[in-house]
From TrEMBL:
This is Rieske domain-containing protein. SUPFAM superfamilies: Bet v1-like, ISP domain. Residues 1-10 have a biased composition (Basic and acidic residues). It comes from Nocardioides endophyticus. Keywords: 2Fe-2S, Iron, Iron-sulfur, Metal-binding, Oxidoreductase. Residues 1-33 are annotated as: Disordered. InterPro entries: Cholesterol_7-desaturase, Homotrim_ring_OHase_catalytic, Rieske_2Fe-2S, Rieske_2Fe-2S_sf.
Amino acid sequence: MTATADEPRVAKRRARTVKKTEPTPESPGNDWSSWPTYDAASRGFRNYWYPIMWAEQIGQKPVPITLLGEKIVLVREGDQIHALHDRCPHRGVPLSLGRRQYEGTISCPYHGWTYRLDTGKMCAALTDGPSSPINGKVGVRTYAVEQRLGLVWIYVGDDDPAPVERDIPAELVENDFVLGGRWDIRPGNWRFAAENGFDEGHAKYLHNTALWRLFKVMPAWNETRIVEKDGWLIRVQDAVHWEAEFPGLGTWTNKRWWKRMPLPDAPGKAADVNPVIQGLDIPGFVSIRMPGLLRVAYPHFIHYEWYVPVDEDTVRYVQIMVRFEKGTKATAFKAKYLGAIRWLFHGQFTAQDAWMVDVMDAPPEKLYRPDLSLTAWRRHIEQVAPTVQQDPTVRVSK
Ligand code: FES
Ligand SMILES: [Fe+2]
């Protein structure tokens, strides 16, 4: 492998995600040992469905992906998309480099071992004749695949998968809506991305330069508590402070003459609210749930972002903006998404988050009062006690 300028930093981050620092009296809890499940989950959690990419992006050519550290190849056959372990058991060549030699199969590019797409079983070793003794004795693991919201979803788990709807917010299963979205592969561990999403303090500082907020005031600071409802942890603002005086420093505020004061402290409190969003009765704008999905609800639309672990150092960041409308309002939203939201919010705004997720390096850490959102999320994971993804390289070989 060729060394790159990035390697030392990546190596450092990997070491930090597995290393524990003994707490000392001077720095109580500056590591993640209070949350052992979370601490161990650098590759995420098994037994969940994860959104991957738009279904229409998978064409005739096999698509290789990495999910929770597992190498997977996606292959389309008509309307169906299949997912198989992307490694030929013969000599370890990726099947994603292979050919679609016969219907319903994929052949390894090296010696032509040929696998059924639906079962992963090898059905022919093309270079050893029809009587090859290895025939039928090997196979590759397959993964359950579903298509919802225009996205491909893959289940990484040990048992029969739960219905994919379990891992999709109920409001997206039960209502009509229009959506716009994008996905990226971003540097940084998925836990940093999830924590950044639910982090209470940063929006008021990091994002106060974002074009998306050019005409809306950001609070100076908030008094926050976290409540749990329907499997979501929700950030509730008990008090919103628009300015603050720091003795010896001056006033801290984001108020400007051209900015309007934003919404009340919960989406349902606005004067004019979409009925679906009102029906959710969410006590705060920002919520998070397993296995790593953030919801930011506004009175007229909801933004969702999934932090899908690629490997220990990389996250698949899938973001969608949803409006629960049909007809002309839906068309207008689509145009607004493509003309503005995609670039300002799903682009420049969340790129500020990506920047922080890339450069941050914790633990060790020293938390402050607004970080109760982070600790509530970590505690929630300990309570749910999901199955942590271990090093998958052995598990996926059959
Ligand atoms: S490595 Fe795949 S057939 Fe030989
Ligand atoms: Fe952010």
